[in-house]
Amino acid sequence: MARIKKKGLDYFPMGVEFVGSREVRRLVKREGEGAYMVLSFLISDLYGGNGYYLSVDEDYYEDLSDRLFTMETEDVRRIVIYTVELGLFDARLYKEYGILTSVDIQRQYLFSTKRRSCTGIDEKYCLIAEDTSANPPADSQTDATPVEEVNATEKGINVTETAEKYTSTVPGYTKHSIAKHSIAKHNSSSTGSSKPVKEWTKEDIDCLEPPTDGQKRNFEGLKENLRLFHIPIPEQYAIICKTGYGLIGHPVWKGFVELRNKFGKFHSPGRFLLKQCT
Fold first, then answer.
1. What pTM did the predictor assign?
2. Arithmetic mean of pLDDT, 33-42
């Protein structure tokens, strides 16, 4: 009798920053500590079952609530929906097929099963480009340089200068708000020497505050989307400046929609979004 080929994984890694990530903290803050247990079951069932996706329906919600003991089916359903809203799983595939998956999950699956004779992702569920299928997930590349930064360096693009260029086009109120956290510019003295450039960090981006000018904007949503697509920090700064801190109706929001529809097919999503800002 032929042996049934295994689809799922026996083990999956979890980044040390996962528990403290913004998305997980928001989940636990709204739904309580039990929500983290639900999320843990979802990820375990996903990797252990089909390997790169998990089908969720009323039967699954009921089964999971039975395993948790302290939660009702409605609680599980509500938490699952909120994890999708937070971007932990792909919203389009959840809506169309009732499954939970993401780019990082699919990359991890392909990386973990690359030695198997037969492995792959159903085309209708695939969120990553074919040329990246053999690469390890981004959060496991502890000694690697992010793809976006490599491409920018190879092509001679100075992302810090790009951020400065876009800052110069931002209205005065934005410049004033950014002044508290301004980036050190390339200033050459009469002797030709230049000052070192400040390297922006995630903490610097978190400290930025939009102006109180009465205009409608979604600054938190902008930052969350920039992190979701792993935009390099200098490019995040440039996009924040160019969009006036996430003004509602700015073309960048349509850019995010296109990135979601073709997630994984853009090698430099940050540069793509910057083009939408011109």
1. 0.48
2. 92
